[in-house]
Amino acid sequence: MPTADKPFTSIVRAGLERACRDFTTRVEPLAFRRTLKMFWTRRHPLTVDFIHFHRSGSTYGTPRTPSVDIRVHFGIRVLNDDFIDTALNGPHSDPGTLRAGRYHLRFNAETGSTYDRCVDDLARFVVEQGEPWFERWSSVDALLQSASPLRPQDRESLRAARDGQSSAERVAASLKILGIKET
User: Fold this and answer.
1) HSE on the CB side for 11, CA within 13 Å?
2) What whole-number distance in Å separates Cα of residue 100 and Cα of residue 34?
3) Domain residue ranges in the chain
4) In angstroms, rounded to a whole number, what is the distance separating the alpha carbons of residues 166 and 181?
5) 62 falls in which pLDDT band (50, 70, 90)?
6) Over the range 129-150, which residues count as b (16 or more CB within 10 Å of their CB) and which as e?
7) Is the pLDDT of residue 5 over 50?
Protein backbone atom coordinates (compact mmCIF):
# COMPACT_ATOMS: atom_id res chain seq x y z
CA MET A 1 0.00 0.00 0.00
CA PRO A 2 1.16 3.56 -0.65
CA THR A 3 2.55 5.55 2.27
CA ALA A 4 2.48 9.31 2.81
CA ASP A 5 6.18 9.81 2.01
CA LYS A 6 6.38 7.46 -0.99
CA PRO A 7 2.85 7.16 -2.33
CA PHE A 8 3.34 4.88 -5.31
CA THR A 9 7.10 4.65 -5.84
CA SER A 10 7.58 1.02 -4.80
CA ILE A 11 4.38 -0.12 -6.53
CA VAL A 12 5.33 1.56 -9.82
CA ARG A 13 8.94 0.36 -9.58
CA ALA A 14 7.85 -3.25 -9.00
CA GLY A 15 5.25 -3.10 -11.77
CA LEU A 16 7.73 -1.67 -14.26
CA GLU A 17 10.34 -4.28 -13.36
CA ARG A 18 7.77 -7.06 -13.82
CA ALA A 19 6.84 -5.65 -17.25
CA CYS A 20 10.53 -5.47 -18.22
CA ARG A 21 11.08 -9.10 -17.20
CA ASP A 22 8.03 -10.28 -19.13
CA PHE A 23 9.04 -8.16 -22.15
CA THR A 24 12.52 -9.71 -22.03
CA THR A 25 10.98 -13.15 -22.46
CA ARG A 26 9.00 -11.88 -25.45
CA VAL A 27 11.97 -10.36 -27.32
CA GLU A 28 14.53 -13.10 -26.64
CA PRO A 29 13.37 -15.04 -29.76
CA LEU A 30 14.32 -11.92 -31.75
CA ALA A 31 17.87 -12.16 -30.31
CA PHE A 32 17.44 -9.15 -27.99
CA ARG A 33 18.99 -9.45 -24.53
CA ARG A 34 18.30 -7.21 -21.58
CA THR A 35 21.60 -5.52 -20.86
CA LEU A 36 20.53 -2.58 -18.68
CA LYS A 37 17.48 -1.82 -16.56
CA MET A 38 15.47 -0.57 -19.54
CA PHE A 39 17.69 -1.49 -22.52
CA TRP A 40 17.60 -4.55 -24.76
CA THR A 41 20.36 -5.05 -27.31
CA ARG A 42 21.15 -7.19 -30.32
CA ARG A 43 24.79 -7.09 -31.35
CA HIS A 44 26.16 -7.20 -34.89
CA PRO A 45 29.83 -7.07 -35.94
CA LEU A 46 29.95 -3.25 -36.29
CA THR A 47 26.66 -2.07 -34.75
CA VAL A 48 24.13 -2.78 -32.04
CA ASP A 49 20.35 -2.61 -32.40
CA PHE A 50 18.69 -1.46 -29.20
CA ILE A 51 15.30 -0.99 -27.62
CA HIS A 52 14.93 1.50 -24.79
CA PHE A 53 11.99 2.05 -22.45
CA HIS A 54 11.25 5.34 -20.76
CA ARG A 55 8.58 5.53 -18.08
CA SER A 56 6.62 8.68 -18.80
CA GLY A 57 6.68 11.06 -15.86
CA SER A 58 9.75 9.39 -14.34
CA THR A 59 11.72 12.64 -14.24
CA TYR A 60 9.13 14.57 -12.31
CA GLY A 61 9.60 13.17 -8.81
CA THR A 62 7.63 10.43 -7.13
CA PRO A 63 4.69 8.96 -9.03
CA ARG A 64 1.32 10.42 -8.08
CA THR A 65 -0.63 7.45 -9.42
CA PRO A 66 0.02 3.73 -9.86
CA SER A 67 -0.17 4.15 -13.64
CA VAL A 68 2.86 3.00 -15.63
CA ASP A 69 3.06 4.55 -19.10
CA ILE A 70 5.96 3.26 -21.20
CA ARG A 71 7.48 5.02 -24.19
CA VAL A 72 9.54 2.77 -26.48
CA HIS A 73 12.52 3.98 -28.52
CA PHE A 74 14.55 2.10 -31.11
CA GLY A 75 18.10 2.87 -32.11
CA ILE A 76 21.23 1.67 -33.81
CA ARG A 77 24.62 2.28 -32.22
CA VAL A 78 27.82 2.14 -34.23
CA LEU A 79 30.32 0.37 -31.99
CA ASN A 80 33.12 2.64 -33.25
CA ASP A 81 31.09 5.74 -32.26
CA ASP A 82 32.65 8.20 -29.80
CA PHE A 83 29.34 9.76 -28.68
CA ILE A 84 29.09 9.54 -24.88
CA ASP A 85 25.46 8.38 -24.81
CA THR A 86 22.97 6.46 -26.92
CA ALA A 87 21.36 8.29 -29.81
CA LEU A 88 17.65 7.50 -29.99
CA ASN A 89 17.77 7.57 -33.77
CA GLY A 90 14.86 5.29 -34.60
CA PRO A 91 11.08 5.25 -34.38
CA HIS A 92 9.40 5.61 -31.01
CA SER A 93 5.97 5.17 -29.53
CA ASP A 94 4.98 8.83 -29.42
CA PRO A 95 1.24 8.89 -28.66
CA GLY A 96 0.56 11.41 -31.41
CA THR A 97 2.14 9.37 -34.16
CA LEU A 98 2.72 5.62 -34.00
CA ARG A 99 0.44 4.66 -31.12
CA ALA A 100 -2.64 6.41 -32.47
CA GLY A 101 -4.82 4.09 -30.41
CA ARG A 102 -3.28 0.92 -31.81
CA TYR A 103 -0.85 0.18 -28.98
CA HIS A 104 -1.80 0.27 -25.33
CA LEU A 105 1.51 0.81 -23.53
CA ARG A 106 0.35 1.51 -20.00
CA PHE A 107 -1.08 -0.38 -17.06
CA ASN A 108 -2.05 0.08 -13.43
CA ALA A 109 0.76 -1.30 -11.27
CA GLU A 110 -1.46 -1.46 -8.20
CA THR A 111 -4.39 -3.40 -9.65
CA GLY A 112 -2.75 -5.02 -12.68
CA SER A 113 -5.46 -3.58 -14.91
CA THR A 114 -4.41 -3.81 -18.61
CA TYR A 115 -1.03 -5.31 -17.65
CA ASP A 116 -1.26 -8.28 -20.06
CA ARG A 117 -2.50 -6.05 -22.86
CA CYS A 118 0.42 -3.66 -22.27
CA VAL A 119 3.08 -6.39 -22.37
CA ASP A 120 1.43 -7.93 -25.45
CA ASP A 121 1.40 -4.55 -27.17
CA LEU A 122 5.01 -3.77 -26.20
CA ALA A 123 6.09 -6.99 -27.94
CA ARG A 124 3.76 -6.32 -30.87
CA PHE A 125 5.17 -2.81 -31.22
CA VAL A 126 8.67 -4.27 -31.55
CA VAL A 127 7.54 -6.81 -34.15
CA GLU A 128 5.39 -4.40 -36.19
CA GLN A 129 7.38 -1.17 -35.90
CA GLY A 130 10.88 -2.00 -34.70
CA GLU A 131 11.79 -5.10 -36.65
CA PRO A 132 10.93 -3.66 -40.10
CA TRP A 133 12.97 -0.56 -39.26
CA PHE A 134 15.92 -2.60 -38.02
CA GLU A 135 15.69 -4.78 -41.15
CA ARG A 136 15.70 -1.71 -43.40
CA TRP A 137 18.96 -0.59 -41.80
CA SER A 138 20.55 -4.01 -41.26
CA SER A 139 23.37 -3.66 -43.77
CA VAL A 140 26.44 -1.47 -43.46
CA ASP A 141 25.82 -0.18 -46.99
CA ALA A 142 22.31 0.98 -46.06
CA LEU A 143 23.58 2.68 -42.90
CA LEU A 144 26.23 4.55 -44.89
CA GLN A 145 23.61 6.19 -47.15
CA SER A 146 22.85 9.85 -46.53
CA ALA A 147 19.21 8.95 -45.76
CA SER A 148 20.36 6.66 -42.95
CA PRO A 149 19.17 7.36 -39.39
CA LEU A 150 22.82 7.73 -38.35
CA ARG A 151 24.35 11.15 -37.81
CA PRO A 152 27.08 12.06 -40.34
CA GLN A 153 29.81 11.48 -37.73
CA ASP A 154 28.31 8.06 -36.95
CA ARG A 155 28.46 7.16 -40.64
CA GLU A 156 32.13 8.18 -40.67
CA SER A 157 32.79 6.01 -37.61
CA LEU A 158 31.02 3.10 -39.32
CA ARG A 159 32.96 3.64 -42.56
CA ALA A 160 36.24 3.60 -40.59
CA ALA A 161 35.22 0.39 -38.77
CA ARG A 162 34.22 -1.26 -42.06
CA ASP A 163 37.65 -0.33 -43.45
CA GLY A 164 39.42 -1.95 -40.48
CA GLN A 165 40.12 1.27 -38.60
CA SER A 166 38.00 0.65 -35.53
CA SER A 167 39.12 2.01 -32.16
CA ALA A 168 39.22 -0.59 -29.38
CA GLU A 169 38.56 2.19 -26.85
CA ARG A 170 35.48 3.41 -28.71
CA VAL A 171 34.12 -0.12 -29.04
CA ALA A 172 34.68 -0.77 -25.33
CA ALA A 173 32.96 2.51 -24.44
CA SER A 174 29.98 1.68 -26.69
CA LEU A 175 29.61 -1.75 -25.11
CA LYS A 176 29.73 -0.18 -21.64
CA ILE A 177 27.11 2.47 -22.53
CA LEU A 178 24.75 -0.31 -23.64
CA GLY A 179 25.59 -2.64 -20.75
CA ILE A 180 26.98 -5.35 -23.03
CA LYS A 181 29.52 -7.64 -21.39
CA GLU A 182 32.26 -9.10 -23.58
CA THR A 183 32.10 -12.89 -23.71
Assistant:
1) 19
2) 27
3) 9-177
4) 18
5) confident
6) bbeebbeebeebeebeeeebbb
7) no
